[in-house]
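ZP: hey, is the fructose -6-phosphate complex queued? I don't see it on the tracker
AM: it wasn't, my bad. submitting now with these inputs:
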Amino acid sequence: MCGIAGYVGPRNAKTVVLEGLKRLEYRGYDSAGIAFLDQHDLLHIARVKGRLHNLTDRFRNDLDSAPAAIGHTRWATHGVPCEKNAHPHRSADGEIAVVHNGIVENYQELRSQLQGNGYVFASDTDTEVIAHLIHYNWKSRKTSDLVDAVRATLRKLKGSSAIVVLSTLRPDTLIAARLGNAGGVVIGYGENEMYVASDIPAILKHTCRVAFLENGELAVVTPSGAAYSDSSGTPIIKHPVKIEWDAAAAEKGSFAHYMLKEIFEQEQSLTDTLRGRIDISRNQVRLDMLNMTDSVARRLSGVTIVACGSSYYAGLLGKQLIERLTGLHVEVDFGSEFRYRHPVLDENRLVLAITQSGETTDTLAALEEARERKAFTASIVSVVGSQAARVSDGVIYMQVGPEIGVATTKAFTASLVDLYLLAVFLGTARGTLDTNRRAELIRNIATLPRLVGKTLESMQHSGVIEAVASKYTDRANFLYLGRGLHYPIALEGALKLKEISYIHAEGYPAGEMKHGPIALIDERMPTVVIAPKDSLHEKMVSQIEQVKARNGAVIALATQDDTETAHKVDDVVWLLNAPEMLTPILAAIPLQLLAYEIAVRRGTDIDHPRNLAKSVTVE
Ligand code: F6R
């Protein structure tokens, strides 16, 4: 969704903010803009449609320093992408500039009221009402306090919004506020300089000391620090926390794309995910921040997983792992469906959100619903300090550092590992896993990072993915089939391909193929079949036969040395022989690479796929 960056301090704020926006490009956007105060405290705004370089080019030879600036990358919700709709928006007198992430649900009503008071609108956005309303509140209250005017404005807004305000009325100051769940607001602490951003990577190069705004909070940010207050204006004390992310992790290095870098990082990222969680000598899984005692775990009547997109698919695998190891019934729901279907919940239910960003509006809303119903809430989250982590009773961090590629890869596999650990943890606490089985599961997961490393090495050296990608790049449709533990991986494989290559792809439970999708099979339709040598192998082979009988091309993911399966298919990608519950994680890797290599051949913008955003903070 929209990205926000702001700076006050001695350096050139324009440069700092434009650099911050560059690091937010992964969020996806269709226009960008910046507002800054010059040395005479005059407010200037520059906005462009399209890519960020259209904006940075304008400042290439601009050496005039600016003490304060706010910038924005827009992902259109109200009003088409064009210069006039790009942020920042300003008040009619030009003295107040606002950047905004979220949706003002009652903007039509506010717009009409403001128009009745003589305000003229220059854009089609909901954001512009915020700028005019701040101005109106400032004027009509005859208050010299801009902060009061911002607070009064927030009280009028319906929906979820994060805003940052820059004004000539209070130079050297940024006013940031958060209403509801529309994305985070991070306040970064420097030495006599301060930062504001929607996401940590925008400021990570400068500082790892940050504070987060909660729903209803407002921050007045000056070079010497930030003063926080709640919606009624009561001061709040907030101390910055240290983010353990490495700034280099947010750089692309020698890789052509962030996505490729993140795929190849997975041996390390999964090593990090497991760090501090498993103790082989004590036969233990430790999830300290989950805050769940054995007695709470024993009382559980069931688990509900809520998530969106790839995280939802991770949840579908999590369901199978948890059910196998704990005997608990697990249901999985989309965040966007959960709260509208009157879910049955009680205090003995674990509601588990899976959200890499920790800011997905639909998932947060589901968590809120669960909290109101007094369920035990937990989140599997990547971004430390994100909203999901803060509002849940417990959290399991993915421990993979920033993921910049819009199409998730390393966060997806990390969430699968966290779900595996959770299943073992719950099974242990509930007494459904005996000591030997637990020891076996813990030993197995410890081997996973190396297996992932070997998988990546073999993909790289064999060139098999490149060859398959070249053969099928021109196809319009793909089918992905998996069964049991591999059905969610088939869904994820198809989603990866859709997202970055724009090829239509469907993931299906293999056994369901004959109930409909088989009608699509012909010589132009490749089918990717996940068919490792496991308990369902024979069933998968029969699906392969059915596709071949209709002249469809089959690309199989098969266990190394399974020549029998290899002979039946057109292309084979070998999977390492691994314990059954780890194979789905290994199978995800070649599917990530296949989507990547096809997208490269189709020349798409892999790190910024059209219409997509890294965190979806609107409903
Ligand atoms: C796909 C992808 C998305 C996200 C979804 C949920 O590659 O990344 O489908 O999984 O938008 O995002 P989070 O996990 O941040 O809640």
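AM: back. Residues 3-243 form a domain with the Glutamine Phosphoribosylpyrophosphate, subunit 1, domain 1 fold (CATH 3.60.20.10).
ZP: great, adding it to the tracker
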